[in-house]
Design brief:
Rossmann fold, globular, alpha/beta, DNA polymerase, domain 1, 45% helix, 2 domains, 7-stranded mixed sheet, 295 residues
């Protein structure tokens, strides 16, 4: 029952676009760095049928339990963050024909109230993708200095400096803050509403810091071409401008050395969800897919 619920909750974004651009073929080896609940992996492995030499990675214990239940026992499943996985696979000399990374938060993470990712619920401030780690959103909100909070909101939430400083000051003044609802209501009282809830950027910023998301991406990207076989394809899905900028800049740098370039970019512009997918899965609205090929 739990696995069925998780599968329904998590709709893989840009699935048809991923398949069309990665073009999996029978026998190809696949690495999924953010396998989640296996939406992309299931469809790709249905084509490749290459389980023994493929690897699924996730740092979320719930996702790992699901993957171990749902996928054949001969596929390697790694319970770790994607940078650690990439480094370990590189050290082992492993290579793949297809690599996919979906850097977004999964729907089950957002929808499981106790995880504290969403301000839709009155939940403990947590936001950890990996339940083994100690740093939580509660630690950041209640222990970081006013200056540190403002810098986080500006850098990772792309909040305007004046408003970021105001919110940081208010948070420090109202400590301790224990729940997502407390934090969201405090932010709302000091903000103007727009198309999105005013807490959206702040929650994004705190989540990024809790999970070292951008540092993980920056450290991982340079290693990915080394894990690809010649003509291997790399697909990366991002969900906000900070992530997409890192991927865009890396692809550009890795493809700008003529015949010595590691990669050839296959998507000149990022691929986004169409109207049909957006009607079914509104969370796909910010997803962007970029694809490159190993030279």
């Amino acid at each position: 029952m739990y696995n069925t619920v998780m599968e329904k909750l998590h709709i893989p974004v840009l699935l048809s676009e991923v398949l069309a651009n990665l073009q999996p073929h029978p026998g190809e080896k696949y690495l999924d760095l953010t396998a989640g609940y296996g939406g992309h992996a299931r469809e790709i492995l249905d084509v490749t049928r290459q389980y023994k030499d493929s690897v699924l990675v996730d740092r979320d214990e719930f996702a790992i339990n699901y993957l171990e239940d749902e996928f054949p026992s001969d596929i390697e499943i790694k319970y770790t963050d994607f940078y650690s996985a990439v480094f370990q696979l590189y050290e082992r000399g492993k290579t793949f024909d297809l690599i996919l990374a979906d850097f977004g938060v999964s729907s089950p993470q957002l929808d499981m109230e106790e995880r504290g990712f969403s301000f839709k619920y009155d939940s403990p401030l947590d936001m950890r993708m990996d339940q083994k780690q100690t740093l939580t959103a509660k630690d950041i909100i209640n222990k970081y200095s006013e200056r540190e909070l403002a810098e986080i909101f500006i850098k990772y939430g792309e909040e305007k400096p004046g408003h970021a400083k105001l919110l940081a000051r208010e948070i420090v003044h109202h400590r301790p803050i224990h729940t997502t609802k407390e934090l969201a209501e405090l932010i709302a009282r000091k903000s103007h509403y727009s198309k999105t809830h005013p807490a959206t950027r702040i929650f994004q910023a705190v989540r990024i810091v809790v999970n070292s998301e951008l540092e993980q991406i920056e450290d991982t990207l340079p290693l990915l071409p080394k894990l690809l076989n010649p003509n291997g394809r790399l697909g990366i899905i991002t969900f906000h401008s900070l992530e997409d900028r890192l991927v865009k800049d890396f692809f550009k740098a890795a493809s700008s050395h003529g015949e010595e370039s590691e990669l050839t970019i296959l998507t000149k512009k990022p691929i986004v969800a169409g109207d049909v997918e957006l009607a079914i899965n509104p969370r796909a609205r910010s997803a962007k897919l970029r694809v490159a090929k190993r030279n």
